[in-house]
Write a structure and sequence with these properties.
Shape: elongated
Distance between the termini: 94 Å
Number of strands: 0
Oligomer: single chain
Number of helices: 6
Low-confidence stretches: 64-69
Radius of gyration: 47 Å
């Protein structure tokens, strides 16, 4: 077994001394703050009286007096009471009041000019803003008649181009052209979007 340590650890002793010193400084500061708080004037009547006295002694109007460090030496000192800055009134505001600003025109009360349209709902606004005609909601209803007209117009041309093909082959080729044709009502619905 090792020998028992006799004496005191020097590092821990210095640390304890440092902590005790810091605590003593903090306690002294706290005690001083408590004493200052006891001597501080909090009565609003006394504070107003002090304010009036300052205004009289400085000869300035209350709205322009703002106590700063340059006024502190001229104040009479009372050893029992610490001098603390008293804010009288801040400087005059440079902002314009709402009475000085011109009134803006109420856009809700403006009479619409001739040629303009008014929209109160979303649907009305969309109708006013849209410049093209309404989209066809059911192009498949016109598809049969449109295909018959397309077949009648283009079958003769396909027979001339491909004389050796059978009728079913010609119809297959015609159907392929029909899917890409601008005459197809299903293509007309998205043609405006694709042309942008």
């Amino acid at each position: 077994m090792p020998k028992k340590f006799q004496g005191e650890n020097s590092k821990s002793a210095t640390a304890r001394a440092r902590k005790a010193e810091a605590k003593a400084v903090a306690d002294a500061r706290k005690q001083k703050e408590l004493e200052d708080a006891l001597w501080q004037e909090t009565d609003k009547h006394v504070m107003k009286k002090e304010q009036r006295r300052l205004v009289r002694s400085s000869g300035k109007e209350p709205h322009t007096l703002f106590l700063s460090s340059c006024f502190l030496p001229s104040l009479p000192s009372d050893p029992r009471r610490p001098i603390r800055p008293i804010l009288v009134y801040p400087f005059k505001s440079t902002e314009k009041s709402h009475l000085e600003m011109p009134l803006e025109e109420n856009i809700n009360q403006i009479v619409p000019e001739e040629g303009t349209m008014e929209a109160r709902t979303i649907e009305d606004a969309i109708a006013v803003l849209s410049t093209k005609e309404d989209l066809d909601r059911h192009p498949e209803r016109r598809m049969k008649a449109a295909y018959a007209a397309f077949e009648e117009a283009n079958m003769a041309r396909l027979k001339m181009e491909n004389p050796n093909m059978r009728l079913s082959q010609l119809k297959q080729q015609l159907k392929k052209e029909w899917t890409k044709s601008p005459e197809n009502p299903l293509n007309q619905r998205v043609a405006a979007y694709n042309s942008k």
